[in-house]
Each structure stands twice: as structure tokens, then as C-alpha cells.
């Protein structure tokens, strides 16, 4: 059996997961309006300048700055018709003339200045500057051609996630179809004789309702994947191997929970060693020590397996720490980002005995421009209001009021 690292540090575990050679998913074309939160498979460049020509950004009168003296003294003769935004022809102004030009309309030829309607006075079909108003400067209130972007500018980068704003931009480009990465299909398999599915009847007073699988499915889908729940598995090596084999053939990634400790019935790690290439097992972190990472190779495709502990907090934390990295591999997002660590003021004293790097759930509040971390009991974890404190290795005492490293849950998915 091939040897692999065990009980490694957190940074080493991160490095192994980040550098893993995992086969990216394929591409597919979707209608732009269905591309929200999808990952782009190609760059998208601007097909034209925006604006396509100089346009007015206000309802105003367009004129040439060379005719400023006429505006002040004699008044500029008004063009017989207006210049609405829907006008498709380029109008040309003669010397001493002005034209009412609406917001978004093309600036007429020979014009470079705008007198907004609030500053204009019309007498005998001539345009004058209202008394007490400063003269407009050339190009004030004019949006220049290409001010937003020029033709062939890169507007979207390969690997970028499309936001709601991006959907609007795609519509303005008339980009009906976009090429995106396929959604990762993630199989979720929870094991343990003690587990009972939600809604199932049981006479066992020691039974535990299975929550890990449903939580992980929701997290996978919040990250843009497709979560696929598999039937709960008892502690049976043959059945676990069969279910894992099926899950790996049908999906792009496998997450297991439970069966990773040192008990007589912890068979997931045995199945992994027999079926996959183990990359590491166990990390010096709390919670989450019994985590493992493996690769499954089938023909020319390599798929990731993340084996998480059965403890709900440990399962959740280890998925937060490693799940997004694996998604980035599958979605071909390129360089892996650093963890979103920031600083906060600790509102509680912490004394502990364990010397491992610890991730402790906390509530996070912004007070007077600084984040504050509190260890108040957290039952429902809101990603926008809660996070984790990173308690450094070997440090056993953290004083109230000290500055600690934290991560918001919202930044981890």
C-alpha cells in the first residue's frame, strides 16, 4: 500500500488540497439570464464602444463652446426640432445654433457643450444663459465615447462568477448565450449505525437524526453545485464500498461523513485506502482531526474525495476550510485564494488545554469600525453574523480585549 502523510499541520493540508491535480469539469452554453452565480468558461470582450459616441447625460441644450459669446449676448438660434435619445441620425449644428438634447441622446456634430435646462432661458426662439449662472465648460455633462469601455476590452474573465450586475451587463451586450463551467455534482454519503433519516420512525433511544448530509447538501448548492444525497450507510465495509463506487462513477466529487476515527466500525477510511489514492489522513486541527483527502482515478479523470468527521461541528468546519478549494479546482478558477482572515477584538477570555490550531465558532459584530468576536452560544449560525476564531497552535491563553484572527462564515462559501 502506498504511504501517505498522517496527522499533518493545517498549512500542509491546505497545500496538498490546493496543489492536487483534479480534472476540471466540462463546459456548457446557457442563456445569459440563467447564468447567475455560474462560473465563466471563457473571457468575454466588449463587441462595441460604450457609449458608442459622445452622449448627453442631462436634458440640456447642445452648442459649440466657440459660440459662448453669442450665447451671452445675442442668444443662440434654436434648431427647429429636438434631439431625442431615439434619434438614429447624426445632426449637425451650424454656427450660432443650439438644439435641445435629451439624456442619452447623441451629441450633434460641431457641439461640445451643454447648457442644462435649469440654467437656460428662452426668448424669441433663442437660447440665453440665465442671469447669475456660470458658463458651462466644454464636455460638462457629456459622456465621452468609450467612457465605460472600448471595443475589445475584457469585461468578464474566465473563471469569474457571474453576479446579478453581470447579468445586466450581458443583456446590454446582447450576449444571449454564455459559456460556463458545468455545475459540480457532489455526492454526499453519511455513515454510522446510529444515524436515522429525518422523518423515519425509530425505537432506538440512542438514535441520532442525520443532519450532516442535509447541511452539506445545502452548502454545496449555496456554492453553485448540485448536492446528491445517498442512502445512509450502516457500518458495513462492503456496503460502504459499493455505495462509494456508485457515487464516484455518477458524480464529480464525493463527500463522506463519519467512519474516520479509530473505532472497530470506522470503515470509510478502509474503503478509501482500498479504492483511492490517499493524499493525507488526519490534521492537527480542532475540530476536524479525523479528516482525510483522497483522489479517485477513473480512466483519464481524477475526482476528489473529502472524508469528513461525523461530529456535526467538525464536519461543518472542515467543509468550510477545504470544500471551496475543491470547487475551485472543478470549476477551473485558477489561482487558489488565501483564507479570508481578518482581525477582531476578543470579548471573552479563553483558556484551553489543547495545543492544536483551533477554529472556534463565534458571533461577529461591527462596533465603531472594528469587528468584535464573542463566544456566546450559537445554535443557528447566520453566515453574515457568525464566524470562527483561529486559536493559534501552542497558545493556551487568550485575554479579553486582545486582537485575534477571525473569518466570517459568509466569506468561506
Automatic annotation (TrEMBL):
Q: Which UniProt keywords apply?
A: Magnesium, Metal-binding, Molybdenum, Molybdenum cofactor biosynthesis, Transferase
Classification via SMART domains: MoCF_biosynth
The MoaB/Mog domain extends over 187-329
- Name the domain of life: Bacteria
Checking Gene3D superfamilies in the record gives: MoaB/Mog-like domain, MoeA, C-terminal, domain IV, Molybdopterin biosynthesis moea protein, domain 2, Molybdopterin biosynthesis moea protein, domain 3
GO BP of this protein: Mo-molybdopterin cofactor biosynthetic process
Q: Does this entry carry the keyword Metal-binding?
A: yes
What is this protein's function?
Catalyzes the insertion of molybdate into adenylated molybdopterin with the concomitant release of AMP.
| Name of the protein in its database record | Molybdopterin molybdenumtransferase
Lineage start? Bacteria, Pseudomonadati, Campylobacterota, Epsilonproteobacteria, Campylobacterales
Amino acid at each position: 500500500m502506498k504511504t501517505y502523510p498522517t496527522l499533518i499541520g493545517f498549512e500542509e493540508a491546505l497545500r496538498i488540497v490546493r496543489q492536487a491535480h483534479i480534472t476540471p469539469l466540462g463546459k456548457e452554453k446557457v442563456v445569459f439570464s440563467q447564468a447567475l452565480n455560474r462560473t465563466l468558461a471563457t473571457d468575454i470582450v466588449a463587441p462595441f464602444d460604450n457609449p458608442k459616441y459622445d452622449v448627453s447625460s442631462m436634458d440640456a441644450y447642445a452648442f459649440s463652446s466657440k459660440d459662448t459669446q453669442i450665447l451671452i449676448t445675442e442668444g443662440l438660434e434654436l434648431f427647429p426640432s429636438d434631439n431625442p435619445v431615439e434619434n438614429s441620425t447624426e445632426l449637425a449644428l451650424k454656427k450660432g445654433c443650439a438644439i435641445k438634447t435629451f439624456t442619452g441622446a447623441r451629441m450633434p456634430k460641431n457641439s461640445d457643450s451643454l447648457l442644462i435646462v435649469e440654467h437656460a432661458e428662452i426668448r424669441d426662439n433663442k437660447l440665453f444663459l440665465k442671469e447669475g449662472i456660470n458658463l458651462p465648460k466644454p464636455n460638462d455633462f457629456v459622456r465621452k465615447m468609450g467612457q465605460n469601455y472600448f471595443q475589445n476590452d475584457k469585461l468578464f474573465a474566465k473563471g469569474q462568477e457571474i453576479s446579478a450586475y453581470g447579468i445586466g451587463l450581458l443583456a446590454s451586450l446582447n450576449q444571449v448565450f454564455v459559456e460556463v463551467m458545468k455545475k459540480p455534482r457532489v455526492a454526499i454519503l453519511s455513515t454510522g449505525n446510529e444515524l436515522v433519516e429525518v422523518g423515519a420512525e425509530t425505537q432506538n433511544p440512542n438514535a441520532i437524526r442525520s443532519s450532516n448530509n442535509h447541511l452539506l447538501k445545502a452548502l454545496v448548492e449555496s456554492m453553485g453545485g448540485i448536492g446528491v444525497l445517498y442512502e445512509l450507510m450502516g457500518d458495513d465495509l462492503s456496503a460502504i464500498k459499493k455505495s462509494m463506487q456508485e457515487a464516484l462513477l455518477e458524480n464529480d466529487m464525493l463527500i463522506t461523513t463519519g467512519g474516520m476515527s479509530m473505532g472497530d466500525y470506522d470503515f470509510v477510511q478502509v474503503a478509501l485506502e482500498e479504492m483511492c489514492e490517499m493524499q493525507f489522513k488526519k490534521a492537527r486541527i480542532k475540530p476536524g482531526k479525523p479528516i482525510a483527502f483522497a483522489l479517485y482515478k477513473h480512466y483519464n479523470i481524477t475526482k476528489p474525495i473529502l472524508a469528513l468527521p461525523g461530529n456535526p461541528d467538525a464536519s461543518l468546519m472542515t467543509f468550510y476550510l477545504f470544500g471551496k478549494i475543491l470547487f475551485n479546482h472543478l470549476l477551473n478558477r485558477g489561482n487558489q485564494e488565501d483564507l479570508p482572515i481578518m482581525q477582531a477584538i476578543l470579548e471573552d477570555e479563553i483558556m484551553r488545554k489543547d495545543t492544536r490550531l483551533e477554529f472556534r465558532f463565534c458571533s461577529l459584530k461591527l462596533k465603531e469600525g472594528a469587528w468584535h468576536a464573542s463566544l456566546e452560544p450559537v445554535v443557528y449560525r447566520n453566515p453574515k453574523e457568525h464566524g470562527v476564531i483561529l486559536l493559534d497552535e501552542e497558545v493556551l491563553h487568550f485575554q479579553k480585549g486582545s486582537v485575534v484572527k477571525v473569518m466570517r462564515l459568509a466569506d468561506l462559501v
